[in-house]
Amino acid sequence: MRGAMVLASTAASVAVSLAVSLPLHAQLGTFNPRPGAQGTFAITHGRVVTAAGPDIPNGTVIISAGKITAVGATVAVPAGAQVIDATGLVVYPGMIDGGTTLGLNEIPQGANATVDVNETGSFNPNVQAFYGINPHSAHVGVTRVVGITTVVSRPTGGILSGQAALINLAGDTPPQMAINPKLALVIELPRSGFGGRGFAAFLAQQQGGSTADANRTRQRQVDSLKQMLHDAEAYGKALDAYGKDKTLPRPAHDVVLAALLPALRGEMPVMFPADAASDIRAAVAFAEEVHVKPIIVGGRDAVAVAPYLKQHNVPVLVTSVLDLPAREDDPYDQNYSIPAKLSQAGVKFAISAGENSADSRNLPYVAGMAAAYGLSKDEALRAVTLYPAQLFGVADKLGSIEVGKMANIVVTTGDLLEAKTDTKYLFIDGRPIPLSTKHTELNAMFEKRP
Amino acid sequence: MKRLLLAAVALSAATLGAQQAPRAAAGRATAAATLIKNATVLTVTKGRLENTDVLLQNGKIAQIGKNLAAPAGAQVIDATGKFLMPGIIDPHSHSMSDAINEGSLSVTSMVRITDVLNPTAISIYRELAGGVTTVNILHGSANTIGGQNATVKLKYGRPVAEMMFPGAPPGIKFALGENVTQKNRATVAIPGQPAPARRYPTSRMGQEEVLRDAFTRARDYKAGWDDYKAKVAKGEKGLVAPRRDLELEPLVEVLEGKRLVHAHSYRSDEMLMLLNLAKEFGFTVKTLQHGLDGYKIASEIAQAGTGLSSFADDWSYKIEAYDAIPYNVAILMRHGVVATINSDSDERARRLNIDAAKLIRYGGLTEDEALKTITYNGALQLGVQDKVGSIEVGKDADVVIWSGDPLSVYSSAETTFIDGDIFFDKKKDLEKRQAMAKERADLEQAERPVRATRTQIPNEDDR
């Protein structure tokens, strides 16, 4: 029985590679074997969970040139398509984790040189996660074989942390991985905390300062941020004016201010990490004041301010489902039930496994835990597929099995969110992905060692 | 202890949050006996029994069968559609501990976790709500030879003395690798704090030497006592007993096989070093803790008769965890090693059932094998297999009713029994929430005028 299961999963990856004539070298030695070529594929006779509409009990999905070209119960298989018989299997859209540091954060302790999650200095809007992502990180393969095809990888730290990238977990180079290298801006507003006096207070205290000193420090940081955003706005206006009238003086190029323009023009959402209720409110108020489109990331206390979030139409990327409740007298399931309560309150949300990229592969079980504590199973699935796509404004391309969307598809032995479910086939950008990883290779190397 | 730094943060957080913990469902027995009717019973050692009744009486599992009659006065729980499994055993916990590491020396066999247990820690209640009933509370991993462990039943609300697992063999924590050599520690002083001191050993070479030195001393110490006892037995008079040594006493117990060694270790070479050294000194290491590279030397571990307690899939958080694979436990089990999943975390301890289910995906374990890694095998590793770890007549009534299959992410623990008493009841917990919310609101209301006064005196409390 146990042998059979291992064999089955090995057989599945071999089956894909044979069916689609993968280059053999992709199977050997590399931790993240290279995807196969795009082509025309027909996944037939599977239960298709589209995440957009009702499930199709016995459906077919056609993939062609990277896109989903047909979905349904009575879809004809195009001539020449490579057929994958998914009888007894389930076909899902690839999952999306909107809150990772994947590719930036290999070994956080003791191997500092493998960590590229943050930059020196507080104001780095022009710093892009895209340029730090290591396509050959072992985390890439390990995460995708669970069915997580796409992630947002974001910088952390400072105040203007930089820009997050939307990447597929396949490709030899960052450009091959990137769906949108400049997806969102990350602003970590100086937080309250340590008794409402702010983290700055803590630092000030360490250096012998008072609460008043700390509050001033915090206010100075916020003021500096606002000043920079105002400068960027002015810079944008000057650029626009120059664009219309070349007799005006051309504004000197400023890469820092230029990086802020898409967010200020509403073309790029801003991720605001915030957990405490006061910090969430502060982030929303700040976003409205400077006219940017906020996504709250973290959301530990989001339930407490749910009506406020709904009223202001601000979504939450919940990363705190598995965190311990913040207060001793909080109900034991306080955090497990955050997604269910946001759903009930009508707040837009998605679920993320958070910043620790070695743990990103546990995304489905984080959603599963939310479902064990009140969220419907359908909502839990959408919280890691369609909803993150909607939050980041990419639902036209990703997040469900619908015609025209990118063919990011996972075929499993059962419920996608169950820990015991195994992956049988995986497609990213319409390319078949071999299912071997650093972990399967070490397993193969040692499981039979006498 | 996996992450020393996190432990320090957790400790300071614990100090900050000195609020009274809720006791929603703790308490003494509600009935002399409890009959759980019509459950799917996961016995772990004897398979799955459908539509089966289990009678808990006098703290023990009294009967298992169909259509059992309820004794007079017994409470009856209809568990139709629900699952009953043994309480989860977490072989590596730091729950309830007000201190983790006595890290000033590299041999601290004289210190005891039992002395620093907090029976009101909220982590206990949260773990009960995840179906956990027994935990092995270990010293941290700062030292080659750490302190003495405590095997505890999570009887929330009871005094520590009632929580100690009766008859559990004593144990001790050893540690190898990065946490001991302290290579990950700051080497530059943080402002306002003393400069970090370097402590021997700072290499894996030194660790072996520390162990060899300690057990050489322990062996001599034991010889002195053995000699003294032999002379006393022969009736010699006027003898002076050797001076007691609290550091070496526990190590003598290790040499005599009376104290179980739980050794934090990551790399296969350091594990093998310890197994060989133990063999040389004539004792068996009971478990390798974490043992993330154990799969590389599965045969050697099996041959040593040593168990291993691992994470299901945690990896890549430090160098020595970079080759960790989620197939570890499955490979070890197939080589005959008694292997378990542990939490090493108050957070992760709440969802060990899901961690166990991962082994079905990654290692192809059967459901019973997966369940064993969080129940029966843990009992074996702690030497309490005759009392807990499976649902069998005569064993302690440490059982948990789950809403569905505990290996499903969609299931949650509903009622947790220890020695037949209920220590977590989801329904009662939900019922009490309103009352607790009101109590909190009332307290905040009463506090409000005081706070208002305080804000008029700016910044005085903060210097």
Question: Which SSEs are present, and which pair or pack?
Answer:
The complex is a heterodimer of chains A (450) and B (463).
Chain A: H1 2-19, E1 40-48, E2 56-64, E3 67-72, E4 82-85, E5 90-93, E6 95-100, H2 138-144, E7 148-153, E8 160-168, H3 174-177, E9 178-187, H4 199-206, H5 211-244, H6 255-264, E10 270-274, H7 277-290, E11 294-298, H8 306-311, E12 316-318, H9 338-345, E13 349-351, H10 363-372, H11 377-382, H12 386-391, E14 409-412, E15 423-428, E16 431-432, H13 438-446
Parallel strand pairs in A: 1-4, 1-5, 6-7, 9-10, 10-11, 11-12, 12-13
Antiparallel strand pairs in A: 1-2, 2-3, 5-14, 7-8, 8-9, 14-15, 15-16
Helix pairs in contact in A: 4-5, 5-6
Chain B: H1 4-16, E1 33-42, E2 48-57, E3 60-65, E4 75-78, E5 83-86, E6 88-93, H2 122-128, E7 132-137, E8 145-148, E9 150-153, H3 160-163, E10 171-175, H4 178-181, H5 204-233, H6 248-255, E11 260-265, H7 268-281, E12 287-290, H8 298-304, E13 307-310, H9 328-334, E14 339-341, H10 352-363, H11 367-372, H12 376-382, E15 399-402, E16 413-418, E17 421-425, H13 426-455
Parallel strand pairs in B: 1-4, 1-5, 6-7, 10-11, 11-12, 12-13, 13-14
Antiparallel strand pairs in B: 1-2, 2-3, 5-15, 7-9, 8-10, 15-16, 16-17
Helix pairs in contact in B: 5-6, 5-7
Which stretches of chain B of 5+ consecutive residues score pLDDT under 50?
Answer: 1-27, 455-463
Compute the number of strand runs of chain A: 16
The low-pLDDT segments of chain A are 1-29
Q: How far apart are the first and last residues' alpha carbons of chain A, in Å?
A: 21 Å
How large is the count of helical segments of chain B? 13
CA-based shape of chain B: globular
Give helix % range of chain B.
25-40%
User: Which pair of chains forms the biggest interface, and how many residues does each contribute?
Assistant: A-B, 61 and 68 residues
Distance between the termini of chain B: 34 Å
N-to-C order of helices and strands of chain B: HEEEEEEHEEEHEHHHEHEHEHEHHHEEEH
Overall average residue pLDDT of chain A: 91
Tell me the radius of gyration of chain A: 23 Å
The total of beta strands of chain B comes to: 17
Structural class of chain A: alpha/beta
Beta-strand percent range of chain B = 15-25%
Overall pLDDT confidence of chain B: 91
Main sheet properties of chain B: 8 strands, mixed
H/E series of chain A, N to C?
HEEEEEEHEEHEHHHEHEHEHEHHHEEEH
Helix content of chain A: 25-40%
Oligomeric grouping of the chains: heterodimer
